[in-house]
Specification:
By secondary structure, the protein is an alpha/beta fold. The protein has helices spanning 2-27, 38-53, 59-70, 74-82, 149-162, 166-169, and strands at residues 31-32, 84-88, 94-98, 110-119, 123-132, 135-142, 176-180, 185-189. The chain starts with a helix and ends with a strand.
């Protein structure tokens, strides 16, 4: 009975840590959004990208955007984040799609979500994600106190290998990883895993 109780309490404290962080970020102006899975991630990305660029995209146009974003190495993706994409529209015209405003951080549409499930080689559930204009830019892994921080690093490495490539590889746009147990926090930039 004791072991089961410990597991339950430790899970609760991790969930508590997660909820507190989400509320703290919401209080700092991040919009809370529920993204259960990869389909939600894509829908949210389309909505945010349209709002950020002030244009609506047909399914075919959005597929071109996803195709553009899905190609290349991690380093290519970091560059795509800063560049504009010339989209050939269905009506024969073209327009430039911007993904992130690096000059004016406040111009971006910031959101926070948690418990996103991605299914790649394995099913993974991510703790907290910060999105800019619908793209996941920061991944935060929370561990209860006393649990090895190293385990969280290993978990992030597994996620990168197993499921970051799912759903057009949007999680491959993550620029920063944060690992915290509520007392100690470490962060490091994504170098492509």
């Amino acid at each position: 009975g004791v072991a089961a109780k410990d597991v339950c309490m430790s899970h609760q404290s991790e969930a508590q840590l997660e909820n507190e962080l989400v509320e703290q970020l919401a209080g700092q102006g991040f919009a809370k959004v529920t993204i259960a899975d990869g389909d939600d991630l894509l829908l949210n990305f389309k909505e945010q990208l349209e709002a950020f660029n002030g244009h609506r995209y047909s399914d075919r146009e959005f597929a071109k955007v996803l195709n553009h974003l899905g190609q290349g190495s991690f380093f290519d993706k970091a560059e795509k984040l800063r560049d504009r994409f010339r989209l050939e529209k269905e009506d024969g015209t073209s327009e430039y799609v911007q993904f992130f405003d690096g000059e004016e951080a406040g111009a971006n549409r910031w959101q926070v979500t948690h418990q996103v499930t991605q299914v790649g080689t394995y099913k993974n559930r991510y703790d907290v994600t910060i999105l800019a204009d619908g793209l996941p830019l920061v991944h935060i892994e929370l561990k209860r106190r006393g649990l090895e921080m190293k385990e969280a690093f290993n978990q992030i490495n597994r996620y990168q290998r197993h499921s970051f490539g799912a759903n057009d590889g949007l999680y491959q746009y993550t620029q920063l990883f944060v690992v915290s147990n509520g007392v100690n926090t470490k962060y490091y930039s994504n170098n492509g895993g």
